[in-house]
Design goal:
Radius of gyration: 21 Å
CATH class of the largest domain: Alpha Beta
Keywords: Kinase, Transferase
Distance between the termini: 53 Å
CATH topology of the largest domain: Aminoglycoside 3'-phosphotransferase, Chain: A, domain 2
Structural class: alpha+beta
Enzyme class: transferase
Number of domains: 2
Order of helices and strands: EEEEHEHEEEEHEEEHHHEHHEEEHHHHHH
Organism: Corynebacterium pseudopelargi
Number of strands: 16
Shape: globular
CATH architecture of the largest domain: Alpha-Beta Complex
Largest sheet: 6 strands, antiparallel
Number of helices: 14
GO molecular function: kinase activity
CATH superfamily of the largest domain: Aminoglycoside phosphotransferase (APH), C-terminal lobe
EC number: 2.7.1.175
C-alpha cells in the first residue's frame, strides 16, 4: 500500500509512505483542506472517526463509549505539538502524524503502570501488509492540569520546587512498574559508552557549537564501567511531559520524536529519564533538583552524569535542526555542567 485517501467534508485524510521510508515501513497521516491542517478542528476529526469506522483495515479497540463520546464532543488543545491532541470531558485523544509498525508506547505503558500515568481508554489501529499501526489513542483526561514547564517558568515555580520530591517518588513508582511488568536486561558500561560516543559524534557533526566541549563530552562517557541495568523508560522525559493536578501525572511515552518506534521502545537505564528532568530544570533556569533525586532514591552518579551530558549534546543538535534561535539555551550552562559534574 502506498497511500489511502478519504474525503471528510471539504478536507481529505491521507495516509502515505513517509519520504525515504524503507519498504513503506513508516507512514504519515494528514487531514487537510488544501494547505490548511484540519487535525485541530473538532468537526473534521469527528468526521474522520466516523469514516474510520467504515474502513475494513481500521479497527477500534478499548471502550466503545469513549469513541462514541468523541464523535459527539471534541475540543482542540492549543500550543505547540508534534501530534494533534483533542479532548472530551473525560478523554484525551492524540492523533499521530507519523506512524510506525508495532504497539505504540502510549497504548502499552498506561496499561502496565498503576499510578501517575493517565489511564488507557481506547485506540485506533490500521493493518498494512500484515502489520498493525496505531493511528490514535485515547487516555484519561486530567482536568485543570498545568505542565511543570509552565510552572517552572512562571510566578508559580514555587509549586514545582515545593513538590519536586513528589515528582521523584512518582517517577520511581513508574519505573518500578515498568521494570516488573515489561522486559529488562543489562548492558556493559563500555558498550553503552560506545553508543553514547557515536551519538555525540553525530550531534557534533550537526551542531558545530558542540566542538569546544567534545573532549569533555567523551570523557564523561569513558567513566562508565561494569554492568548497567536496563528497562523500558519514558525516553524523552522533561518538565513539559509532567502535569500537576493535585499530584504529578507523566504523559507522552513516545520517546525522542526523531527516532523510530523500535528505538523509542529500546531498553535503557532509568538514568536517561532522570537526566531528562535535570536538563529540563536547567532549561527553565532552575537549580539542580536535588530534592527530586533524593526522593527517587539510590542512583549511580557517574551514570546519571553521563546521561545528562548525552542529553545536553542531543539538545544542542535538536535545537540546531528544529529551532536554531534556541541553540544558546542548552549551551548557556555548559561550562558549569562539566565543572560541577552535577554532584
Amino acid at each position: 500500500m502506498s497511500s489511502i485517501h478519504i474525503a471528510i467534508g471539504k478536507a481529505q485524510w491521507a495516509l502515505q509512505a513517509a519520504p525515504g521510508s524503507k519498504q513503506h515501513a513508516q507512514y504519515e497521516q494528514t487531514l487537510r483542506a488544501g494547505q490548511h491542517d484540519c487535525f485541530q478542528q473538532p468537526a473534521y476529526v469527528q468526521g474522520l472517526l466516523r469514516a474510520w469506522r467504515e474502513h475494513p483495515a481500521i479497527q477500534f479497540h478499548g471502550d466503545r463509549r469513549v469513541v462514541d463520546k468523541a464523535m459527539e464532543q471534541l475540543e482542540a488543545i492549543s500550543g505547540q505539538q508534534t501530534n494533534a491532541s483533542l479532548h472530551t470531558a473525560a478523554s484525551m485523544w492524540k492523533f499521530y502524524r507519523s506512524i510506525s509498525p508495532g504497539v505504540h508506547p502510549d497504548v502499552e505503558i498506561p496499561q502496565v503502570v498503576r499510578a501517575h500515568v493517565p489511564a488507557y481508554q481506547a485506540h485506533v489501529s490500521i493493518e498494512i501488509a500484515g502489520q498493525n499501526y496505531t493511528l490514535a489513542v485515547a487516555t484519561q483526561f486530567i482536568p485543570n492540569a498545568t505542565d511543570a514547564w509552565s510552572l517552572g517558568t512562571s510566578h508559580k515555580r514555587a509549586l514545582l520546587l515545593d513538590h519536586s520530591a513528589d515528582m521523584g517518588r512518582a517517577l520511581k513508582d513508574i519505573h518500578h512498574d515498568l521494570r516488573t511488568k515489561l522486559p529488562t536486561s543489562t548492558v556493559a558500561g563500555r558498550e553503552l559508552a560506545q553508543h553514547m560516543h557515536a551519538r555525540a559524534e553525530a550531534h557534533i557533526a550537526q551542531a558545530p557549537e558542540l566542538r569546544p566541549y567534545a573532549e569533555r563530552i567523551h570523557a564523561s562517557f569513558d567513566a562508565l564501567e561494569g554492568s548497567i541495568a536496563t528497562q523500558r523508560i519514558h525516553g524523552d522525559l522533561h518538565l513539559g511531559q509532567v502535569l500537576w493536578a493535585n499530584g504529578w501525572h507523566v504523559v507522552d511515552f513516545e520517546g525522542e520524536p526523531d527516532q523510530s518506534l523500535s528505538q523509542r521502545t529500546a531498553l535503557l537505564p532509568v538514568a536517561y529519564d532522570l537526566a531528562g528532568l535535570i536538563r529540563s530544570f536547567h532549561y527553565a533556569g532552575l537549580d539542580y533538583p536535588s530534592e527530586l533525586l533524593a526522593a527517587y532514591g539510590r542512583i549511580d552518579e557517574i551514570l546519571v552524569h553521563a546521561c545528562v551530558v548525552d542529553r545536553f549534546a542531543y539538545e544542542v543538535a535538536y535545537e540546531k535542526r528544529h529551532r536554531p534561535d534556541w541553540v544558546a539555551v542548552p549551551l548557556r550552562d555548559a561550562d558549569a555542567l562539566f565543572a560541577d559534574a552535577l554532584f
